[in-house]
């Protein structure tokens, strides 16, 4: 490290309305390189996954039942870290200069002569309108857009805005922080001349998969909000344009919107399944049933890599195996041709994709994603008598694969174990705690081993009385068999054992 003193800097960044896809490229770059991240309640904590592991993360938002950290303390944190020469990212929901107290933080930084940069963000009004399909302006109905706040300062109840004046507008009003004072604000709009039939839309948690909205009129909306059970944070949009919203709800109309689905993490396909479910609108709870850790025998690796070119086939049984193998391979060699002219087999399509990301063709994938199907294909289609094979794998389920290749196929097999999977302790995992409290609409099982882990961990997954009881979904017949054997009722089964089909089956089942 150089001994030069770095100048600290504060980046005041708009974290957008919630969906991590809605922050700017600049915001992401700065999050990735920050030393310190200071974030509040409305900034999605998922954004922190982009940060360096060692970056300091400071939450300054509301804690359940408590107030947020006072503004002067937040400013002190920023100033103190910047004085130490650190790059400080201050993440604020939406845009920092729209009802975000960004101005106050900047004055403090200026007073302390701390360099800063401001990165704008998608403010809640724009996001809520887009995700509800409401055009904020319209050539025939609205030529002005006004951002108002219903709550200037939590310490004082009075507000300086002349709402009556805004009741005269022909344009669109977007009301931030308006729920608490809504009856009073609406009556002032009416006193200013606004019609009781003026359309109103209220959108809670815009852009997130738990977004909900309710529509009504100036006269009806207070009771509509109450019956819909909508609460903060919510954006209130008032104007003729609310009735011009698109008929098909591109966001809230997605099939799994409002559904909570459990998948198991730390399996090869988990992140892909999660992404598919989320793009269909689901809220996904990922339960980490197993932990994957490297399990490396340096001598064995050196021997195998030294003789890597002798193998005619290399078999990968999992994405983890592929990842660990190539990490080690690239440490030992800087030329992919050192792999030799071997052929490559993968047990399933996720594993194959991981291999293909190294620009290597996969020569064999069995039609069913399991070790037995792989051996059958080898014996029937290839003939592996006296062929040298390398199996790259973890600590589970490898014996029968290797044994069948040798005993039935007559192959000469070396095994390269690279990682081990072990049971995770769910009792203190926040995801498991959430499942216990809230339950879910479905739990999806992608293999027999996930069923087994679920049953093994039953004690840490016991639902509280008022939690939603989930349906159990299975990716295919083998998994269904395990569910039945272990006494779990099968809610639905996917027609084909692929993630796309599984998500479709989930959509179908939960629709009813
Ligand atoms: N700086 C933020 C606003 C902060 S004030 C911005 O530019 O968006 C907080 C208010 O913003 C909330 O009370 C709510 O009215 C609105 N808000 C923020 N995020 C929201 C979201 N995801 N959905 C609906 N309203 C939201």
Characterization of this structure:
The chain is α/β, with parallel strands linked by helices and about 500 residues long. The chain has four domains: about 10-120, Tetrapyrrole methylase, N-terminal domain (Cobalt-precorrin-4 Transmethylase, domain 1, 3-Layer(aba) Sandwich); about 125-245, Methyltransferase, Cobalt-precorrin-4 Transmethylase, Domain 2, CATH 3.30.950; about 260-290 and about 425-510, 3-Layer(aba) Sandwich (Rossmann fold); about 295-420, Rossmann fold. Helix content is about 30%, strand content about 20%. The strands form five sheets. Strands 3-2-4-1-5 form a five-stranded parallel sheet, sandwiched between helices. A five-stranded mixed sheet has the order 6-7-10-8-9, with helices on both faces. Helix 10 runs parallel beside helix 11, helix 12 runs parallel beside helix 13 and helix 15 runs parallel beside helix 16. The model has no long low-confidence stretch (mean pLDDT about 90). S-adenosyl-L-homocysteine binds near residues 99, 204 and 235. S-adenosyl-L-homocysteine binds near residues 98 and 203.
What labels describe this entry?
single chain, 512 residues, alpha/beta, Cobalt-precorrin-4 Transmethylase, domain 1, Methyltransferase, Cobalt-precorrin-4 Transmethylase, Domain 2, Rossmann fold, 4 domains, five-stranded parallel β-sheet, five-stranded mixed β-sheet, 32% helix, globular, binds S-adenosyl-L-homocysteine
Query: Biggest sheet, strands in spatial order?
Result: 3-2-4-1-5
Number of helical runs? 17
CATH architecture call of the largest domain = 3-Layer(aba) Sandwich
| Distinct small-molecule ligands in the complex | S-adenosyl-L-homocysteine
- Approximate helicity band: 25-40%
Oligomeric state: single chain
User: Which residue ranges are poorly predicted, with pLDDT under 50 across at least 5 consecutive positions?
Assistant: none
* CATH third-tier fold name of the largest domain: Rossmann fold
Largest sheet: 5 strands, parallel
Number of strands: 21
First-residue to last-residue Cα separation:
61 Å
How does the helix and strand content classify structurally? alpha/beta
CATH class of the largest domain: Alpha Beta
What is the gyration radius calculated from CA atoms?
A: 28 Å
Tell me the domain tally: 4
């Amino acid at each position: 490290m150089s001994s030069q003193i770095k100048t600290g800097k504060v980046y005041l960044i708009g974290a957008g309305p919630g969906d991590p896809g809605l922050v700017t490229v600049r915001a992401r770059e700065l999050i990735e390189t920050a030393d310190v991240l200071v974030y509040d309640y409305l900034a999605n904590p998922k954004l922190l996954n982009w940060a360096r592991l060692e970056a300091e993360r400071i939450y300054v938002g509301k804690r359940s039942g408590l107030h947020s950290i006072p503004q002067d303390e937040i400013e002190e944190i920023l100033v103190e870290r910047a004085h130490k020469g650190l790059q400080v990212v201050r993440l604020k929901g939406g845009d920092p200069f729209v009802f975000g107290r960004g101005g106050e933080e900047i004055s403090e930084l200026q007073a302390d002569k701390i360099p800063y940069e401001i990165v704008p963000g998608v403010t809640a009004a724009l996001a809520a309108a887009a995700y509800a399909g409401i055009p904020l302006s319209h050539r025939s109905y609205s030529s002005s857009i006004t951002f108002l706040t219903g709550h200037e300062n939590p310490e004082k109840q009075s507000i300086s805005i002349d709402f009556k004046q805004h009741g005269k507008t022909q344009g669109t009003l977007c009301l931030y922080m308006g729920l608490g004072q809504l009856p009073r604000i609406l009556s002032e709009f009416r006193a200013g001349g606004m019609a009781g039939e003026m359309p109103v839309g209220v959108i809670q948690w815009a852009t997130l998969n738990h977004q909900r909205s309710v529509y009504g009129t100036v006269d009806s909306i207070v009771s509509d909000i109450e019956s819909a059970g909508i609460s903060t944070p919510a954006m209130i949009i008032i104007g003729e344009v609310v009735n011009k919203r698109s008929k098909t709800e591109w966001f809230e109309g997605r099939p799994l919107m409002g559904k909570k689905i459990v998948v198991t993490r730390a399996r090869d396909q988990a992140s892909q399944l999660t992404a598919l479910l989320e793009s269909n609108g689901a809220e996904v709870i990922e339960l980490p049933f197993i932990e994957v850790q490297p399990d490396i025998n340096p001598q064995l690796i050196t021997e195998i890599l030294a003789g890597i070119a002798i193998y005619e086939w290399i078999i990968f049984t999992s994405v983890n195996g592929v990842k660990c193998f190539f990490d080690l391979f690239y440490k030992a060699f800087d030329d992919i041709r050192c792999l030799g002219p071997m052929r490559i087999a993968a047990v399933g399509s996720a594993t194959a994709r991981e291999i293909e990301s190294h620009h290597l063709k996969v020569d064999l994938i069995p039609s069913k994603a399991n070790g037995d199907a792989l051996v059958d294909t080898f014996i029937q289609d290839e003939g592996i008598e006296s062929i040298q094979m390398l199996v790259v794998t973890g600590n589970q389920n490898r014996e029968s694969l290797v044994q069948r290749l040798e005993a039935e196929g007559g192959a000469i097999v070396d095994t390269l174990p690279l990682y081990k999977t072990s049971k995770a302790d769910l009792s203190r995992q926040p995801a498991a705690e959430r499942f216990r409290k809230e339950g879910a609409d479905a739990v999806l099982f992608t293999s027999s081993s996930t069923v087994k882990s679920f049953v093994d961990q039953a004690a840490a997954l016991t639902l509280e009385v008022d939690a939603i009881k989930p349906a159990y979904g299975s990716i295919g017949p083998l998994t269904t068999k395990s569910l039945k054997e272990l006494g779990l009722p099968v809610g639905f089964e996917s027609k084909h054992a692929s993630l796309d089909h599984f998500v479709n089956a989930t959509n179908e089942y939960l629709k009813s």
